Amino acid sequence: DKDKNQKVTLDEVNAQLNMLEMMFNPVEGGGGDSGNDEANEYKQLLSGVKSAAPTLFNLLDVNNNQSLSKSELAHVTKFEKALKKGGGMRELLRDVFSILDENADELLSVEE
Questions:
Q1: Closest CA relative to residue 46, chosen from 25, 70, 75
Q2: How many of the other CB atoms lie within 10 Å of CB of 72?
Q3: Could you give the maximum distance between any two Cα atoms of the chain, in Å?
Q4: Which helix (H) or strand (E) holds 27?
Q5: Beta-bridge partners for 68
Q6: For 82-96, what is each residue's pLDDT tens digit?
């Protein structure tokens, strides 16, 4: 939240990802290959994150205001916790369904 407005924009996310990417650029003449191999692995992982970021951002942006509030970001924490505990994916799926089911009729329509 670079501008301290209590919301995170996709531009702010991309700026942080770009900063991380620069951190893993190999330094010229920087010693052994093992450090470069590890940096390259992180860079590949980061490349995948960067390509998925816009889609993930749009999924989390429930009210489509082009920024993520604290409550919208809380879904990331729920997802992380669901992955760590046994049977958590069921709970995560229920949470995702409830988010998508805007009219709370326990059915997902094409519009939803």
A1: 25
A2: 19
A3: 61
A4: none
A5: 8
A6: 667 766 667 767 777
